[in-house]
Amino acid sequence: MKHETGYEVHDDHDLHLNLNVCGEVDKTKCPGEGSGACSHTGTHDKPSSFMSAGKANAKLHYTPGFLFLYYTGGDQCNSAASWSTFISFICGAENVTEGPVLIHDDLDKCTYFVNWYTSAACERRIDCFVDTWTSRLDLSPLIRSTGNYEIINPSKHKEKFYMNVCRPLNPIIRFNCQPGSAACLYNSSSVGEPLNLGYPAVGLVYVYEEGVKMMYTHGIIQHSQNTTTEAGRVGLED
Length: 238
Hints:
By secondary structure, this protein is an all-beta fold. The protein has strands at 7-10, 15-19, 37-41, 51-52, 61-63, 66-71, 84-90, 99-106, 111-117, 129-131, 136-138, 149-152, 159-163, 183-187, 195-198, 205-207, 211-223, 226-236.
């Protein structure tokens, strides 16, 4: 995936981010030595000054749900931190558009977050069907490769759930949920990032007289000052 000229992603506010995988960005797009990511605003014809968003490295890390590169040591952001870029490689749905997406630029953390959907990150995808005594129940038609399912909590209207079926969430710009998660909870009245409700790591289960159960594991739910790991559970009925 390392490319001689690198890659470019942008948001809808004229922010452009040039980056490469495990290597430097072309110096014509990022003056300076060793940058794995470089940002600028404006247009291709009239860009603003370029800013290093982290030094390149080839230290690919694994965590449940995704792989990632973390480029640190870019230009100074504020008195306490320099710019960095966090690139997550995600095994998305079968027909998801592959490539990098600029999800969020966190001005407090001085970090750009990029989600990169690629089959190269796929060890395996879970089956999206379950066999009963009499038939096979196949939920794969419910898998979304664009957009996500959105559900408002009927008892807490400021809470919204985002989810996909058997696969990770598709890109949501400026919504920095944990990469690779299949369900997230956003509370418009709270401060902080959305809560990851789990990854699609366990196959479907059929419970007699209750229907199909889908469980996403290793999610994070915060209770007061303590953070615990829990699973998100979804029941599907006819």
